[in-house]
Amino acid sequence: MHANMLIDKVAIVTGASSGIGRATALLFARAGASLVVTARRHAELEELQAEIDVIGGKAVAVAGDIRDERIAATLVETAIDRFGGLDIAFNNAGTLGEICATLALSTSNWHATLDTNLTSAFLGAKHQLPALLRRGGGSLIFTGTFLGHTAAVPQVAAYAASKAGLIGLTQALAVEYGSQRIRVNAILPGGTDTPMGRIMANTPAAKEFIAGLHAMKRIASPEEIAKSVLYLASDDSTFTTGTALLVDGGVSICKV
Prior knowledge:
Rossmann fold; 15% strand; 45% helix; 8 helices; seven-stranded parallel β-sheet
């Protein structure tokens, strides 16, 4: 179904060592893309690269912290040096940050969460956009959330604020670069079975409660979210830009 959707395309995926990033990297590889994947954990990245090799894909792993602008530059340089350019960038890496009452949240933790979730996305885009423009266009994608957009929960103010900021960045870039064939969109997952998701769904009772908040009464697999990222990356979405795409199992609308 997804074979050849991204044939001859080059993509960067951040936060690729687990969860949605890992699932998306594998799906992109199956769809024919050449990949530059990054995360902080080198061993997990090497495992991902090996798995992509097994399925016949092409990937280069670059370990590093996406809060470092030098990493943002290195990822783009690697895409150009190894694969000739850049067509797709999935800025997915993020953190939940400290879970606590807002009045107990330290300024340093506030800044750390915004740096990881929002500033790193800006830095990624700042270096990715020139390479996308050199290809005559491309797709820039961010991972947001429904939290801080259609709903809120206690004790994650920095996370919600940083992810809400991503939607503003998405819209601003979509307008600024739309005439140059750059599409910019955000994916907004609901509850997903990832290491980050399990921080909140950390007991069977908590997982059941979170699942029950969704209209579909379950939590997504990372692979389900990855399919929507593939849509935004591919030519199936050539007239889609500036969108905050809810892939949330109905959690935004469910009140029962």
